[in-house]
Amino acid sequence: MTLDIITPDKKVFTGEVTSVTVPGTSGTFQVKNNHAPIISALTKGTVKYKTGDGEKTMQITSGVIEVLKNKIILLLES
User: Chain-centre distance of CA 18, in angstroms?
Assistant: First the structure.
C-alpha cells in the first residue's frame, strides 16, 4: 500500500506501508492491504504506520483519511 501524509505546509511522508492506525472520530482504527474504500474524519491522537524500516508515529490534532485501491491519503491540520 502507498501512504501520503500531507499538511498545509508540506508533504510529510510518501512511501510503502504495511498498515496504518489512525484516531477516527468514533475510535481508533487500522487500515491494512485491500481495505474497503473509506473517507473518515480524524481527531486528536496518534497516527502509527509500519514501513520496511519499522513503526513510525506522529501526533495529530485533526484531519481526514481517504482509502481507495490500496492508496491511503492523510490530510492533516498539523
Answer: 11
